[in-house]
Amino acid sequence: MPAVALLPFTITPSRKSSSPSAFRLTEKFVLLLVFSAFITLCFGAIFFLPDSSKLLSGVFFNSGVETDTSKTGTDRDANIFGADSVERKLAKIRKDHEKALNEAKDTLQKKPDEIKQDILSEKDKVAQENMVFKTNGGNAALPYLDFKRPPGVVGREPADPETRQKRDKVKEMMKFAWDSYKHYAWGSNELKPISKQGHSSNLFGNIYIMTLNFVFLINAEVSVFEVNIRFVGGLLSAFYLSGEEVFRKKAVELGEKLLPAFNTPTGVPWALLNIKSGIGRNWPWASGGSSILAEFGTLHLEFMHLSELSGKPVFAEKVMNIRKVLNRLDKPQGLYPNYLNPNSGQWGQHHVSVGGLGDSFYEYLLKAWLMSDKKDEEGKKMYYDSIQAIETHLIRKSSGGLTYIAEWKGGLLEHKMGHLTCFAGGMFALGADGAPDDKTGHQMELAAEIARTCHESYTRTNLKLGPEAFRFDGGVEAIATRQNEKYFILRPEVIETYMYMWRYTHDPKYRQWGWEALQALEQHCRVEGGYSGIRDVYASHPNLDDVQQSFFLAETLKYLYLLFSDDDLLPFEHWVFNTEAHPLPVIKKRTDK
Predict the structure, then answer these.
(1) How far is CA 90 from CA 83, 85, 87, 179, 564, in A?
(2) Per the annotation, does 74 bind a ligand?
(3) Do 500 and 429 form a contact (C-beta atoms < 8 A)?
(4) Given Cys at both, which of 344, 431, 492, 587 links 74, Cβ 3.0 to 4.6 Å?
(5) Which residues are annotated as catalytic?
(6) For 347-376, what is each residue's pLDDT tens digit?
(7) Do 223 and 296 touch, CB atoms closer than 8 A?
(8) Helix spans in 136-216 (H)
């Protein structure tokens, strides 16, 4: 499969609108007038409203820490953290606004021939910069890198005709899903395949990829976690698969945009970041403004590669500091709670989950060790210690013989397992070989049992697709009992575990289970404009939610493709996958000087 087919995003096709020369001079002049008038109107409305400073600081630069007087002193202190800095940033924005308006006025006063000459000069400047970029082997700010593509970017065709036919079907699904997104929703985060239009959430702010150039809308607030795993991870993967320097450059630039999120008393990053102002905050619902384990614990792989490619140790230092904070804390029963206050450095609510809010933290501990060519002994110890605690306190077996991973809330178990938790079968298999005290066989058995339980959650529905969560109480096993847990949004975790189990066992049932899931997707989720999620997998007829999630392409279809591929495609001894399924190479120690 070509490298581009393994990525969740593709280089934007060249469009006429991307070239400055595509517009006539008069059109440019009119566009500049309209743009200047719009900017003046928007900022004028803000700055001449009563109490505009309060409005700006409250709307655009709210640090997100609540002022509830019932909080601890540390939490209250965080509320006034950086007040002077906010005022300085407001003054700077006013100054930048005035500068932009003056530049626009100066441009409008020029003659058309002068404007045209300025455009041509700017194009020459960009061309010269690109020539320097290529001559130096990349951005002058980045060290020269003698790129050597890691092994396994291209694998053999499966020898078995039936397997090859199934893999080709996955390719057809990927092409259909991608073409539908490109046709109906280009520039949006996701596709509404029934409405045939774009769908955007507020997770990323307004970040667009246009002819390989990121355009950061200056007041956009983004999820640090989501931008890291999707965009930084995707750019890093694109670089390692293609060798194109522009991907390395953009990955490092975007990583640098995320660094202000770590400006907290502990260095544990905020969940949300305004990428212009550098002001961060946490989700207001997250245990008194805490940071979330699965978010701040899922930066390690990408940031280690950023340091590797940029020669800048700051990225690695940021994520290694997170480990220092965690290692200083007592863990209840050896478990890691899902919430950590970035101001006080103390745990929030004692809620432990291997599913949502916790999942990828454990995944990244293991993969950090593997990605380091098994040199990261600290990551290895943290992973296996946490798995021992999980097995002791969270893993249970139902009366019907199904092994599941419950959730722990203040010492009490909730006998519920989420679809997100189903990734753990693949994680246990991936980590089995390095398990201490000859527990490799036990870890593989545990992985197989989790895979079976998650498969049962699919087969026990009418549509043969799994619910968001399923329970083991009240005489029920592997079935969702609450209406808000019966939906399916094209999630990848069960397919992910099938893929890992196939790679390690070559038991044909995993390919069969994956094919059954693929057929259900085709039968119930495919519509004219793409693939849609389902609101109730127990209904006789699917009620579609009209959203094609981006991770359906990045993960679900990619894992299906790998499931029906030979093991030499992205082999595990040379690659690890980040939590959005972007392949990143193992960092080998250089032997050359």
Answers:
(1) 11, 9, 5, 43, 55
(2) no
(3) yes
(4) 344
(5) 226, 359, 468, 493
(6) 999 999 999 999 999 999 999 999 999 999
(7) no
(8) 161-185
